[in-house]
Design brief:
The chain is α/β, with parallel strands linked by helices. The radius of gyration is 21 Å and the shape is globular. The chain contains five helices and five strands. The longest helix has 24 residues.
Length: 177
């Protein structure tokens, strides 16, 4: 009588199955942890951000853009974000850029080169980026006057992204307070 022998021991098969199950469970929990429209946005004040002062945003519409110095679309988005910040500043819209760079020198060089007309702060300890579970670089969150996420704009696709963000801001500005 012949028998079939697996090259893997029963223990190895069970261990592999357990590791796979844990990996899937972790991926599901991370996916659930990502902010979605309607969720409260974490406090910027408690995130220990470096590189400048947080602008007053209580009762205002807040645009938070997560970026990194190594991200080409982030570099391309900064002029459009600067124009949005300038165009909406008088209408109680505040834009804040948050760098997720681990290297403070890379963050500082990017800010110096780009010279954004909005606060570009540094999440050096990755507190906020972990709390938000940012899905891609760049990702922009539009937050209403009550501190709730209203829309999420992942990536930057030139004029189309800027128009989409402007339309979302305009719609939010039309809402009754």
């Amino acid at each position: 009588m012949s028998t079939c022998h697996s090259p893997y021991s029963p223990f190895a098969r069970v261990a592999t199955a357990v590791v796979c199950a844990l990996t899937i469970a972790l991926q599901i929990s991370v996916a659930r942890a990502q902010l979605k429209p309607g969720d409260a946005f974490p406090s910027l004040a408690t995130a220990n951000l470096a590189g400048g002062e947080l602008p007053p945003s209580a009762g205002k519409i807040l645009v938070v853009d997560f970026w990194a110095s190594w991200c080409a679309p982030c570099k391309a988005s900064f002029p459009a974000l600067g124009k949005i910040a300038a165009d909406y500043a008088a209408r109680d819209v505040v834009l804040v850029g948050i760098s997720v760079d681990e290297n403070p020198g890379a963050y500082a060089a990017f800010v110096k080169k780009q010279a954004p007309p909005f606060p570009a702060l540094h999440d050096a300890r990755q507190i906020l980026v972990r709390a938000v579970q940012v899905p891609a670089m760049p990702t922009t969150y539009l937050i209403d006057r009550q501190g709730r996420v209203r829309s999420i704009h992942a990536g930057y696709h030139g004029d189309a992204s800027a128009k989409e963000l402007r339309a979302a801001i305009d719609a939010l500005l039309l809402e009754k307070i």
